[in-house]
Amino acid sequence: xxxxxxxxxxxxxxxxxxxxxxxxxxxxxxxxxxxxxxxxxxxxxxxxxxxxxxxxxxxxxxxxxxxxxxxxxxxxxxxxxxxxxxxxxxxxxxxxxxxxxxxxxxxxxxxxxxxxxxxxxxxxxxxxxxxxxxxxxxxxxxxxxxxxxxxxxxxxxxxx
Length: 160
What we know:
The protein has helices spanning 2-24, 27-59, 67-74, 78-89, 110-122, 127-134, 142-156; strands at residues 64-66, 96-101, 104-109. It is mainly α and 160 residues long. The protein has 2 domains: 2-57; 63-156, no CATH class. Strand 2 and strand 3 form a beta hairpin.
């Protein structure tokens, strides 16, 4: 929590600090500090991007995984995992799909998405058959199937 606060406040604080140095101490020092800050900011952006890619790759290792299991396996705070999954959910694709169902985030990898598309959309199997087939992966209720079907339609841009 404190780290998140510091992440938000360090940039404006540093700018104010550089302005004070610019007017009260030395203009060259302020410019060097500003260049250093820009370099640090770029490093932070690259680090966050790589971290997000690694997290996405981790999620694709599992056919279906819930946020609480990810938090346990990565030994991270559940709220942090939920935030990351929420960000990734905005960019669902054919390789990774994340849904928010019953107050938890659930991730499905590419193979699972293809199998679900085949069962739910291409062949239109009954709900009972799908629950029986995909129950071993943890899909146990009709609400989840309905959400999956809607998201698959959105991803594959189907109108039916």
